[in-house]
Amino acid sequence: MLNWHRNSVCTCVTWAHSTWLHMHGSSRQCLLCSAAPWSWRYHAVLPVVCVLSLPCVEYAAVFTCPFITVEVVSNYSFLFTVSGSDSSLQPYLLMSHIDVVPAVSKEWTVDPFAGDIDDTYIWGRGAIDVKNTLLAIMEAVNGMVTSNRRPKRTFYVAFGHDEEVGGVQGAAVTASLLQQRGVHFDFILDEGMVVVEDTVIPGRLAALVGVAEKGLLTIRLSINMTGGHSSAPRAESSLSAMARAVAKLSQTPHPHHFGHGVEVDMLEQLAPYFPIARRVFISNLWLFGPLVAWLFSQKPETAAGIRTTTSVTIFNSGIKANVIPGYAEAIVNHRVNPRDSFDEVGHFCVGL
Length: 352
Prior knowledge:
- By secondary structure, this protein is of the alpha+beta class.
- It contains 10 helices and 15 strands.
- It has helices spanning about 50-60, 60-65, 130-145, 170-180, 240-250, 265-270, 275-280, 285-295, 300-305, 340-350; strands spanning about 1-5, 70-75, 75-80, 90-95, 115, 120-125, 155-160, 190, 195, 205, 215-225, 230, 310-315, 325, 325-335.
- The strands form 5 sheets. It has a 5-stranded mixed sheet. Strands 1-11-15-13 form a 4-stranded antiparallel sheet, with helices on one face.
- A hairpin with a 4-residue loop joins strand 5 (about 115) and strand 6 (about 120-125).
- The longest helix has 16 residues, at about 130-145.
């Protein structure tokens, strides 16, 4: 049995942006990574402490500014309207999200919700997904307000609370609210790409700018077979059959689309910074495209940029050590390349 669930991740262009994170005073704890209750109903951690702390601790000036309107959407999400001095200019939107995915403490070397800071890193679930941009936005707005400056162009700030589970109550409700008000944006600055080291350019930093976003397709595989006792096993069980199926999915990558997307423009711009040997290949993709595509496929970070990816994320089967299960289920998560359709990905999996 195979079911797939379609979820369009985002309809806006995603841009990368750099951030500066400023920690106040000598505190060794990051506000938005502090330990907090979470909601298992949404299967995503909701750091409620940040919602409660923002107005009264770090950013009181923002919440009391006369030209900033603050709205709470669906109980936990925030929508800020920062009114500019020139209403004739089309506004823009800055976005981030408050929630994070769950963390298993025993898999961490530190408390994932302590928000500890050392000389190199901020340790905490959500430090890079995506509390860094949330804090950067709030720091920028707070700096503007405390410096007695008002922007010429109106802009909005939206912080969702359920992005990790689809954003149905956060971003979707906020978008509907803005649509009802007839708000149109000049641009949207959302969760972007990253700065990578020794990944795209050997020995160099590269700041990646995202200009599109993959779709999200989750497939549930399930199988029912006759169970039994481990003392008299059959040649095949539901668990072993499912294991073979997910192994085949994991080991069979989707076709790459190298040469048909923005990666070509990116490589042409980066070519001068590559070592001379690679520069020859990068500057002549018309000839060496297949070789460069193979090189991209050797690292997970670059391979993900040229094809739809497949990840087996959940496997459920069995209830007792000496009982052969009759039922097995696996959840397979796909991040769909813009050149692939959901149907194409689903049929690709069925064909295996």
